[in-house]
């Protein structure tokens, strides 16, 4: 079974995280659009009938009770020319044509669901996310209640891995000092940064400091069992997916917290306006 949970503690309230998350997603989308190797189309004006069709086609039955056609949905399509891009390292093969990825996302805050798939190679990645204000004693609690799981998955999902934003990712080529929480400060939240390098900073917060956790559950599905994936290549693919997703989550949350002064005074309305403006420029 290909199932993995990551937990990302953040020194924010749930509302602050929501704001920072939306801002960071916009900034990373801008970065993607600045490369000539990636073309992105975005669809969010999707009819309820079409949303229902996608739900029935893409989601396992256990998730269809969590996501319905009334929930906001977005569809992004990526056309990748440069398949060396870090975001797509989990494809351990080299296609002769441009790589096409479809991303479907549903926002039912504080629960979100994302599906990333490449139909050509029968790969579908399902990511369930749940966000929660916590105390330190709650960081190790069983999170299975947050996710839609079958009985087999509940038995399998015993462990998780914490992604610690005070650590530096193993790939030194991707290190950015302006996205290192241990080497940046915040003028608007002076008690927040810097974090002490390579420590469990979340265990040393004072009682009046905020703490929340982003839970990420990743699942791999091979759509066509008759595809070219063998047990060996399946294992390699899964290992590559986990490495890439961990890197993405690590960088995303470091970028979010280090840029807190740029988004902490914004409102969700400000963020939605920026997002809509960017999406309109793509269409």
Describe this structure in words.
The protein has 283 residues and is of the alpha+beta class. It has a single domain (2-277), classed as 2-Layer Sandwich (Alpha-D-Glucose-1,6-Bisphosphate, Chain A, domain 4). The protein is built from 7 helices and 8 strands, in the order E-H-E-H-H-E-E-E-E-H-E-E-H-H-H. An 8-stranded mixed sheet has the order 2-3-4-5-6-8-1-7, with helices on one face. The longest helix has 28 residues, at 231-258. The protein is globular. The N and C termini lie far apart (39 Å). The model has no long low-confidence stretch (mean pLDDT 88).
CATH architecture assignment = 2-Layer Sandwich
Task: Give the C-alpha Rg.
Answer: 19 Å
Strand coverage percent: 15-25%
Number of helices: 7
Order the strands across the largest sheet as they lie in space.
2-3-4-5-6-8-1-7
CATH class: Alpha Beta
Give the strand tally.
8
Shape: globular
Q: Might you state the CATH topology name?
A: Alpha-D-Glucose-1,6-Bisphosphate, Chain A, domain 4
What is the residue-mean pLDDT, rounded to a whole number? 88
- Give the ordered list of helices and strands: EHEHHEEEEHEEHHH
- Low-confidence spans: none
- Counted up, domains total 1
Helix content: 25-40%
Fourth-tier CATH superfamily name: START domain
* N-end to C-end Cα span: 39 Å
Query: Based on helices, strands and strand pairing, what is the structural class?
Result: alpha+beta
* Biggest sheet statistics: 8 strands, mixed
